[in-house]
Amino acid sequence: MFGQGYQFWTKADEDGNFTIDNIRTGEYNIYAWVPGFIGDYKYDVVVNITEGCDINMGDLIYEPLRNGPTLWEIGIPDRTAAEFYIPDPDLKYINKLYVNHPDRYRQYGLWERYADLYPDGDLVFTVGISDYKNDWFFAQVNRKKEDGTYEGTTWQIKFMLRDVDHTGTYTLRLALATAHLAELQVRVNDPKSDPPLFTTGEIGHDNTIARHGIHGLYRLYNIDVAGVELVEGENIIFLTQAMNTDPLQGIMYDYIRLECPPSTSS
């Protein structure tokens, strides 16, 4: 509602039908999202709610974002990082309530386990070989160094291209499940390129990592990758979380997808 910030939520049934009751009088926008699809639906017309009204919205059709065929994807577009690798907790912090529990992420100190698992180098995910359930850490956090300070981390996604459309534009879609005082920088095939191909700037005050959650505010970034940036053979996307002043800064990914230019096969 304009100027007031009221929100009223519901969940559609399996046929897509929904009802929202007891809405305060005012002007509203309608937003929706569908598990399994990236992005948000927004109804183009402001809905005016008056006392006692009954409005049938008819069919609301969402067309998910897509520019071309999928080259590869990592994760499930469900706005959480629950499908990724969640490590066992440090035994000195373990909460027995969440041992063998579906919500494994509700253990204290899991952010420190990243440095235990990747003490000398960062995560490398190879498309077609790696499995995001086992090889993609659920949160991109800082690494604690021996002197007690922290350093940002750079993850790599390696993938092969048989043919490259050098005149076309590829689309990298990065959906984040949460961010806290983070900056995500994206580079392609050059880890030191300055400026990076894309940066979010500083984002997020979700505090999801500290509160042992698995999602916060959803963010979706759609990044154009010029075909001239890619090569036939192995390519690497570098994902750098650049803010490095404390252990709780970081991001959780929801879903990552690389799309070919329109009318291009992989």
UniProtKB/TrEMBL annotation:
InterPro entries, A to Z: Carb-bd-like_fold, Galactose-bd-like_sf, Polysacch_Lyase_4, RG-lyase_II, RG-lyase_III
Membrane-crossing segments per the record: none
Domain of life: Eukaryota
SUPFAM superfamilies: Galactose-binding domain-like (SSF49785), Starch-binding domain-like (SSF49452)
Gene Ontology MF terms in the entry: carbohydrate binding; lyase activity
Gene3D superfamilies, A to Z: Carboxypeptidase-like, regulatory domain, Galactose-binding domain-like
Domain Rhamnogalacturonan lyase intervals: 5-56, 70-258
Pfam families linked: CBM-like, fn3_3
Swiss-Prot/TrEMBL keywords: Lyase, Signal
Keyword Signal: yes
Name of protein: Rhamnogalacturonate lyase
Species this protein is from: Gossypium arboreum (Tree cotton)
